[in-house]
């Protein structure tokens, strides 16, 4: 097993055009944790056919805060798709939060949804069903196999842009247009 050469926590993974896994085709994934045991992230550009209003009704949490009912719920990844995860800023103090850094957290407990429903806080939230996970060394191997590009995350992309613009915006941080990427890796 090889050691991690760089920590990709708080980075985006940009799926390359040759991505074989249909769960990740044209996806932008935010990495919330990356260590010697593996990596955990959520896809941030895949809204599903469910609104926050529908989700809150399904889990019997009142949604009284203004302006949130029509926001989409996202497909966060193929692991535990029956469980909700909330990427949010600020990180705050919730029952089950993975604090990514001083600015952002990923929470899987009901208390954050109750706060969002009653007060609209925290102000920046992205709610997903499921997450993406990699075992030790798996993500590093996928990057070596040219499945992903990486770039430091910019939360303005996640919380400030519509989902259909997020992938292209992350690519622009690398100075690359997605349309110019080839589906096959070059060999010298």
Automatic annotation (TrEMBL):
The record's listing under InterPro entries reads: AlgH-like (IPR003774)
Any one Pfam family here would be DUF179
Taxonomically, which superkingdom?
Bacteria
HAMAP family recorded:
UPF0301
Family recorded in the similarity comment: Belongs to the UPF0301 (AlgH) family.
The protein here is known as UPF0301 protein GO606_09320
Q: What organism is this sequence from?
A: Aromatoleum anaerobium
Instruction: List the taxonomic lineage.
Output: Bacteria, Pseudomonadati, Pseudomonadota, Betaproteobacteria, Rhodocyclales
